[in-house]
Amino acid sequence: MSFLTRVKKLPRLGLGVSTEYGVGGAGVLDPLELRRLHPTYGGFLEVGVEAAKGLDANARAWLTRRWPTTYHFLDINLDEPEEFDPHWLGEVRALVHELRPAWLCGDAGLWHLGPRDRGHMLLLPPILTHESIGPMAAGIARLREETGREVLPENPPGPLFLGDLHLLDFFGRLAEAADTGLLLDCAHLAIYQQQQGHDPLTALDGLPLDRVVELHVAGAMVRNHEGLEIVEDDHTPEPLPATWEIYEHVAARAPNLKAVVFECEKNSLEPCLPGFARIAAGWRRA
Predict the structure, then answer these.
(1) Mean pLDDT of all residues belonging to the chain
(2) How are beta strands 228-232 and 182-185 bridged, if at all?
(3) CATH fold for the domain made of 3-285
């Protein structure tokens, strides 16, 4: 069964928020409070997971209420067959059983160099060449098979991109080769387009938008270091204008869009509310 048939069975999760192990405490957005005060903004929780760490108390508090989740992996290089070792796969299957996620997703890049190690949290983008697509597509298909869940690759951020393909051309071809859907991170794409000297919507006309299942929106900070302009993906509550332009363009044209995450997990609730409201309004218009 092709993905464009399978996607019809995926649930529509709506608007949600992300979290990672250890994120929480005073002055930080509480997903349970968000859902209680603004249920349309807290439709689901995207749980960032390193299998060796497992789930923290905040994620477990959400799970006790059996509210919807997605599983965002933080520890696998999809294009390396040796990543799928039995121990790691056992941990992942156990977490999938506990989380009951609608799907798996995560940045399709290098989460580590050398052996997987707890707490590494390195992330580099893939090499954007035709040769890189096959191994990564095989990894996506393998993870889907091993977990029984759809696996949505996400375009990662990065200070430097190597290869002769545009990022969107790479991910469009990857999705078709793996017969999978996509998680398009609008903030990461805005940073990439600026780094490459492109307009925000460059190459989106070639992306198979019917495969976009999830979108991410997040804030970023533009910094200047000795004359070099750097855009930092820092998950502040204020997305760049280019991020909003990409989000609103794609939300209006992605027929199988099921979920949007506002990545603002390290901020208090109040400054995040305008962003949630704009995301919700953009999706309603679409």
Answers:
(1) 93
(2) unpaired
(3) TIM Barrel (3.20.20)
